[in-house]
Amino acid sequence: MNLSGTSFHDVKLSAATFSDVDLSGSELRDVNLSGAEIRDANLSGVSIKDCALAGMTINGISVEHLLALYRGMKVGE
Fold it and tell me: Does the reported pTM lie above 0.85?
């Protein structure tokens, strides 16, 4: 099904499953992804801005800890 260019507003899709979905070029705004799992996804070029990251992991590694380490690095290290 081709839903390219469609806008969704105030939609509840909790516990939904998406398989073989192309969201390239999409914008997700004011989205609750708490408890969601993303697998086998192409995240190249993805930008995450102004988001709550508490408990978020990438391949089992805490994003909060990674960012704390990054922020603690000196320039040029």
Answer: no
Which residue reads 């806008």 in tokens?
7
**Residue corresponding to tokens 């704390």:** 68
What are the tens digits of pLDDT across the range 18-41?
999 999 999 999 999 999 999 999
**Gap between the Cα atoms of 46 and 41, Å rounded:** 11
> What residues have CB less than 8 Å from 58, skipping those under 6 apart?
66
CA 21 vs CA 26, 46, 51, 72: distances in Å:
11, 16, 23, 38
CA angle 13, 29, 6 (to 5 degrees): 65
Report whether 26 contacts 41 (CB < 8 A): no
| 61 phi/psi in degrees, rounded to 5 | -105, 130
